[in-house]
Amino acid sequence: MSSIILIEDEAAISDTLRFALEREGFAVSCYTLAREGEAAIQAQKPDLLILDIGLPDDSGLEVLKRLRRHSELPVLLLTARSEEFDRILGLELGADDYVLKPFSPREVAARVKAILKRSSPAIPQAIMGFLSTAKSISG
Fold first, then answer.
1. How do 75-79 and 97-100 pair as beta strands?
2. Residue of 6, 8, 37, 66 with fewest CB within 10 Å of its CB?
């Protein structure tokens, strides 16, 4: 089961996303403040971060900048900011995707699945073939 940290200060959005993602089989931990979420990332080592840009204690973009100094954790940004500049900045800072509010929780779940699929280390076909051959010989 993949684990997700969601840093979002709006309870209705957080609850809706948690429900949709848990229905898809993800383990979701929610935080309303940047500093709480950043501490959780260090402690939990999640598979993906969903990050609101407009948090009460810090900018999500600043959180992303700090994260990128030491981590390649996949990040999906959430924001009500629809300006092209904001979207481009988020992507240039290292976000894997960007979703505008309001959004469909099912679409966010689909985007999360796509990001995780792309970010999972793929085992080359040659190794897969070797492993299946070795398994059939040994067993």
1. parallel
2. 66
This prediction has a pTM of: 0.86
Domains and CATH numbers, the chain: 3-138 (3.40.50.2300)
Q: How many C-beta atoms lie closer than 10 Å to residue 42's C-beta?
A: 9
In angstroms, the CA 87 to CA 63 distance is: 15
Entry field: residues in the chain: 139
Per-residue pLDDT of the chain (139 residues; tens, 9 = 90+): 899 999 999 999 999 999 999 999 999 999 999 999 999 999 999 999 999 999 999 999 999 999 999 999 999 999 998 888 988 999 999 999 999 999 999 999 999 999 999 988 655 444 455 455 555 555 5
